[in-house]
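Milestone M4 deliverable, item 7.
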Amino acid sequence: MNTNWTEKQTSELFDAYDDWVEDHFGYQPMIADLTNSCGKEINVLDYGCGGGKVSRRLKSAGIDHVTGVDIAPTMIDKAKAAGGDKLQYVHISGPMLPFSDGSFDAAISCFLFINIPERLELSHVTSEVARLLKPGGIYYVLDTNPRTTGIQYPTYRNGEYGVTYHDGEDRPVYLNIPGQQSLKLVDKSWDVQTYHQTFSQAGLTLIEEKELKYVNNFDNPDRQNFNELQDTKPFIMFKTVKASC
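Output delivered:
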């Protein structure tokens, strides 16, 4: 069974997680690509925003307006409490969102697909994002790389070493929480082909698929270098576009 993100304790522990690996090797490359492709005077949807960490990073990168949505009320409360100019957060109860067609220039989903337990729901979410995008709008999906499991990274491990996870199979994830024991989550393992099919069914065209590398390049002594991780690829980013009229 996948992680229940509506549980308060799970949400609070996850919010305490130090996501510097995801930030350096996932969020930063994605946000740089987004601003290069779309500019900064845009309206961006963060579908599955959690506590708003990535939404705030989008704003820090100069994005004009960001709207975050999530099913976890505790997460939305934390996002709202963190504040921020031109940041809007909305609690949702399902895939459908209370916005008009073509409301957004771009959309992102970070580690959302791996938390969706059924293919049908993947289709519903992606189709809803497609509805909300303007013609020519871009949708980024960032997830853990299904081709890289069982590797211990400085702050987490995605799956068990030596185990192959099939499409739709549950996969354990262990997060290192400062001052706490590790938080065990249960994600869903989706093959890359499932992402491709989901995008296509929603009318989105895949324009780039990129495995993002881990690189040891930190000057901060608190960030221990793990030489054996050099050039491993913990994350995968899909860049899709909605057809223009």
